[in-house]
Design goal:
Helices cover 5% and strands 24% of the residues. The strands form two sheets. It has a four-stranded antiparallel beta sheet, with no helix packed on it. Strands 4-6 form a two-stranded antiparallel sheet. A hairpin with a 5-residue loop joins strand 2 and strand 3. The chain is mainly β and 95 residues long. The site of zinc ion has 7 residues, from loops.
Length: 95
C-alpha cells in the first residue's frame, strides 16, 4: 500500500488585521474558511490590481459567498506555503 503524503507544511499568519497585500506572493495564499467547514483558496489578484492591497483582510470578507451553505460573509486567512491544488472552489468572490 502506498501512502500519499504532501511534503508541504502550511502555517497560518496569526497577526490580526493583516493587509490583503501580505497574502500575495509565490510562497503564500489567502484562504476563505466558512463556519460550515467549506474552504477555498481565494484569488486576490483583482483586488490588488485595483489598488486595495493595503486594506485589512477582513474588509473583503463580505465579498465572499459560500456555495454549500449560502453564507454571505466568509472569514479570510493568510497562509504561508504554496497553494494546494486539491482545495476546491467551494467559496467564490461575489462582485
Ligand atoms: Zn459555508
Amino acid at each position: 500500500m502506498n501512502t500519499v503524503r504532501f511534503g508541504i507544511m502550511y502555517e497560518k499568519a496569526s497577526w490580526p488585521d493583516l493587509p490583503l497585500g501580505h497574502g500575495v506572493g509565490e510562497d503564500r495564499h489567502v484562504r476563505a474558511i466558512c463556519k460550515c467547514g467549506a474552504s477555498s483558496v481565494v484569488d486576490t489578484s483583482m483586488w490588488v490590481a485595483a489598488g486595495l492591497g493595503g486594506k485589512p483582510l477582513p474588509t473583503f470578507e463580505d465579498r465572499m459567498r459560500c456555495i454549500p451553505c449560502g453564507a454571505r460573509s466568509v472569514p479570510l486567512e493568510i497562509w504561508y506555503g504554496r497553494v494546494r491544488p486539491t482545495l476546491q472552489a467551494m467559496i467564490y468572490v461575489f462582485r
